[in-house]
Amino acid sequence: MKRSLLSIRLLNKRSRNMHIVCLLPYLMECYLHIRQAAEKLYIHRNTLIYRLKKIKQDTGYDPQISQDAVSLRLAVWIYRTLR
C-alpha cells in the first residue's frame, strides 16, 4: 500500500532514509537508468539497486516505475522546499 507524500516527507527526516533525498534527483536526471545514475553517484550499481529496493520497501513507491518516481521526486521537492 502506498503512503501519502506527507508520510514520505516525514520518513525522510530519519537519517537512515536520507538516501531517498540524495538518490532520486540523480536517478531522474539519468532517466531511471541505474548504471548511469550509479556512475554519477560514485557508487556501485548493486549498491544503488539495494537502496532503490529499500526505498520501495519503506515508502511503497517503486523508484524504477516512472509514475512512482515522479511522485517520489515531488515528495523530495516538497521536503527540500519546507526544510
Automatic annotation (TrEMBL):
- Domain PucR C-terminal helix-turn-helix positions: 27-76
Q: Which residues cross the membrane?
A: none
| Any coiled-coil regions, as ranges | none
Q: Which Pfam families match?
A: HTH_30 (PF13556)
Q: Which InterPro entries match?
A: Homeodomain-like_sf, PucR_C-HTH_dom, PucR_C-HTH_sf
Q: What is this protein called?
A: PucR family transcriptional regulator
Organism source for this protein?
A: Aneurinibacillus aneurinilyticus
Q: What is the lineage of its organism?
A: Bacteria, Bacillati, Bacillota, Bacilli, Bacillales
